Amino acid sequence: MSDVQTIEQLRHIGWRGQALPADGRRVARVVAQHRAGYELHDGSQIFGAQPAGHFLKRGLDPAERPAVGDFVEVEPGKPPHILSVQPRRTVLSRAAAGERYERQVIATNIDFVLVLTGLDGDFNPARIERYLSLTEGSGAQPVVILSKLDLHDDGTARIEDLRGRLPAGTPIHAINSKDPASVTQLAGYLRSGDSAVLVGSSGAGKSTLTNTLLGSQHMATSAVRGHDSRGRHTTTYRALLPLPSGGCLIDTPGMRELKLTGEEHLDLFADIEALAEACRFADCGHGSEPGCAVQAALDDGELSPERWRNYLKLRDEREEQAAMLESRLRRQRGGRPATKMHGPRGSRERES
Ligand SMILES: Nc1nc2c(ncn2[C@@H]2O[C@H](COP(=O)(O)OP(=O)(O)OP(=O)(O)O)[C@@H](O)[C@H]2O)c(=O)[nH]1
Ligand SMILES: [Mg+2]
Ligand SMILES: [Zn+2]
What is its EC number (predicted)? Predict the structure, then answer.
């Protein structure tokens, strides 16, 4: 097959490169990762592969191992081996739960992060803000999708509530994931060559939406618990699927914990940061200080207490994670301080 044909084929799986590797190595995309190895797709077929030995070395940052969404170079063989990962256009990651700082890659080379929440008991604006904050550092565009519109008469109130809370311009779609006509409003995020990842709690309906977009019941789904709308962790691995629309969609397992990585900017709360800068005292604790702009906004209802609390929680977590990230990077540099502080914007302090 000619290079032109190979490139044309790779386009079907979202590859944007202009030239194939000079050494003639085969390029493919990671579409699934299992305990036993990887599944790759070259735009025409799926095949299994193992990571080369250097990916298994102890001490290697897990974020450097091949992840779903990656384009990799492959050495033929039985089985084929993944030799290297091509530079990532975008990366969505979270920090692993636990004491040690570790970034976990959720998906790479994605254009859109589709944050899916059910309009049932799953609905939780604070959690949506957490997902949007994580997305900020990824390089991909966030899109909020509210599912199960067909099941909830009070859906409209929740949608309006969210619109008032999120920055203007954040796309919000309310859908019935089971209805092909309803999901056509997402077509703009799944165009040929584009890739999107679906994230959200278990039971939100990620696999249901994936199946509707695919036009087949490829992913298993299961009913949520009646009393609290919780899902049953049906999907257990990330799966990248080429859609009939020409776009690629990554379905993921519902995540129990979503820790910030420390690289977020919290642009979502820029209005609150602006308020805090308007306080009379530069070191205002936003408690009972005179001239506190935050208290004034809380008092007159301009700022909701719930959103303020979520901001404080995310800000503190971001600071803590940023400190852990910085000390890990320092260790990697052999104890030298960073030449350029890669701290979050919140660490800037006024000098008055
Ligand atoms: N009526 C209705 N039911 C939905 C909708 N979206 C999802 N469901 C139902 O919600 C349940 C959970 O859907 P799943 O697609 O399995 O959820 P998931 O997000 O993939 O969950 P995990 O794989 O566990 O993370 C299923 O019973 C779906 O039929 C929707 O828009 N309308
Ligand atoms: Mg699922
Ligand atoms: Zn204040």
Answer: 3.6.1.-
